[in-house]
Amino acid sequence: MGGFLFWLVLVVCVLVLVALLFPFRFRVEFEAGERGCKARLFFFKKKLWSGEKKWGRGKSRASAHEDDEDSSDNDVTDDDAFMPEFVATAPKKPVESKSAPVAEKKATPAKVEKVDPAPTPVATPASIVESKPAPVSPETPSVKEPASTASTASTASTSSATDSTTDSATEKRKLTDAEFWTILLTPDLDSRAFRYVKSLLAIIVRLFNIKFENCFVEGIRSDYTSMGYGVALNAVLKGFPYLESWDFRMDWCRDKDLHAEGTIHARTNLCRGAFLLLAALFYAGILFLSFWRRRTRVLKTGELPELGFVRKKIVGWMVEE
Q1: Which of 39, 110, 274, 319 is surrounded by the fewest CB atoms within 10 Å?
Q2: pTM exceeding the 0.70 threshold for the entire prediction
Q3: How many domains is the chain built from?
Q4: What is the CA radius of gyration of the chain?
């Protein structure tokens, strides 16, 4: 029985390791141009998702030429534009307008109603009897507290009330838009965030084994000198990793539209995905804690960190929006 359990546990462990280390392959095919872009996502050979976005930019030369011909056909000649048209019309008879008589109304004096004065109430003996004060029953005299203890109790109550109101105000108060963007655009916080994003991108590239295949950009137009520099830069970029499969093609004959196309391959497994998720949560937690500390400090003291000229302009733009 013990040997059977041992082999069962061993088989389960092997299956878990195979599931964690099994490589999953993804492929993304993309195209982008002046009129739109589209992409397709494949898992092994099965297409999972496809999307297309059109923004209607740019026109082909044939359509532009047709539009020019249509506009030239619909143009009006100068002779037609300045040719007056004469239409025989009979003269109209003048029509005399007579004003209708207005009936005069005589103002009638408004009637004044007389208001009788309200009778003044007369005090009766019963009301006089009811207004008499009630007799005071003999009770033990109340002991008065000393003035010092009463004053200390009142000051303590007022101080506790003010403390509770200030605490509730600080808890209920929220950051304004200017305070939020000022804290978010603090230089040291931004540098830390950019460093974390850079490390996450490096982890993604290493863990997913991202590779490009047959990627190119064609239809690049400029003056001939700049295009010559572009060809030289393209040859230099081919020596760097992840750019060796990219080709930037200049449009020397000026007969091609701007167009980009290529394929991205990625390979990963569950173990690498879990490691990436943990790293992203770790970096996000550090950034959130640093932001929360700055928020509490601003809510307590009301002092905002100093920003440079460019960052102040960005804060102003974000608040205006």
Answers
A1: 110
A2: no
A3: 1
A4: 44
